[in-house]
Specification:
- It is a single chain.
- The protein is α/β, with parallel strands linked by helices.
- It folds into 2 domains: about 130 residues, Nucleotidyltransferase, domain 5, CATH 3.30.420; about 160 residues, 2-Layer Sandwich (Nucleotidyltransferase, domain 5).
- The protein has 11 helices and 10 strands.
- The strands form 2 sheets. A 5-stranded mixed β-sheet has the order 3-2-1-4-5, sandwiched between helices.
- The longest helix is centred in the C-terminal third of the chain and has 27 residues.
């Protein structure tokens, strides 16, 4: 029987300081997340310098708590996986520097891990049966990607946003109608009380790319012209229209690739309406996967999982590893 591989994951790409211990890439022994949402709420978004400072204050305690909850010591860890991009450069550097220090002190392998690959890998934790190949729709504050997952470490982007990421569009809509930050969950909640009875524009491109700037601008203009517009209806209409755009492109991609397995990933995949509309595709013969809600947001368990698959594929990083804020997935 092969030895279990225990991975310590570290995530600090934005405003969550997280550490997790994961066995064999799929079994979470601990996943500690220290969120800064309350701190950044009053600024209406993440302030990079404040995020970095809080990561510095939190990271040691978060790592120690993850080991404590897993009932393990540093000696039990086989490798250390950390997010090195994409994200806020100062925030990333805190996690990368800490992971490099641990790797050197403990003489354990270091695996620099792509944050987006982490979001994809979150599905492996929730769905023990999921194996490549499959299609993954990554929807978050910074990304809207359609990715063909050919193998655990082999990806091809077949569609992406040309302007705003979908999460960014949610946040901007929320800000304009006075819901505040973070916008996604607040729009989702308000939409539940509304009817999708407002027609909003869809941008159709001649490939599998997305564009959300048109619909975002239409919502903003509608609200400016009619400040008394029913905000619940506006949220419901926005949510319904962007979901239709996501589904149209995803189905087109699935047909092109002849793939029936579709996974969702990223913070926006926690949106209840989007999730339900994708689940409805199972009636058409598709198999839909999505991470449990806690694994949709930024967390270190997903980084540990992605790092594990990089490690068993022969990837290792050295102590020259640096943060790459605009790191690409391919």
């Amino acid at each position: 029987m092969e030895k279990d591989i225990i991975t310590l994951g570290i995530e600090s790409s934005c405003d969550e300081t997280s550490a997790a211990v994961v066995k064999n890439g799929r079994e979470v022994l601990s996943n500690v997340i220290n969120s800064q949402i309350k701190i950044h709420e009053k600024f209406g978004g993440v302030v990079p310098e404040i995020a970095s400072r809080n990561h510095i204050n939190n990271i040691s305690g978060v790592v120690e708590e993850a080991l404590k909850q897993a009932d393990l010591t540093y000696n039990d860890i086989d490798l250390i996986a950390c997010t090195y991009g994409p994200g806020l450069v100062g925030a990333l550097l805190v996690g990368v520097s800490y992971a490099k220090g641990l790797s050197y002190a403990l003489n354990k392998p270091l695996i620099g891990t792509n944050h987006i690959e982490g979001h994809i890998a979150a599905n492996y934790i929730t769905h023990k049966d999921l194996k490549p190949p499959f299609l993954c729709l990554i929807i978050s504050g910074g990304h809207t990607h359609l990715v063909h997952i050919k193998d655990y470490t082999e990806f091809e982007i077949i569609g992406k946003t040309r302007d705003d990421a979908i999460g960014e569009a949610f946040d901007k809509v929320a800000r304009v109608i006075g819901l505040g930050y973070p916008g996604g969950p607040k729009v989702d909640k308000m939409a539940k009380d509304g009817e999708a009875n407002i027609e909003l524009p869809k941008t159709h491109l001649d490939n599998l790319d997305f564009s959300f700037s048109g619909i975002k601008t239409a919502v903003i203009n509608l609200h400016h012209k009619n400040p008394d517009i029913n905000k619940s209806n506006l949220c419901a209409s926005f949510e319904k229209t962007v979901t239709e755009i996501l589904i149209e492109n995803t189905i087109k991609a699935a047909k092109q690739l002849n793939i029936k397995s579709i996974a969702l990933a990223g913070g926006v995949s926690a949106n209840s309406y989007i999730r339900q509309e994708f689940i409805n595709l199972e009636k058409k013969g598709y198999k839909i996967y999505y991470p449990e809600s806690i694994l949709c947001t930024d967390n270190a368990a997903m980084i540990a999982s992605a790092g594990y698959y990089r490690y068993i594929n022969g990837t290792k990083s050295d102590l020259t590893l640096n943060a790459i804020p605009n790191l690409k997935i391919e």
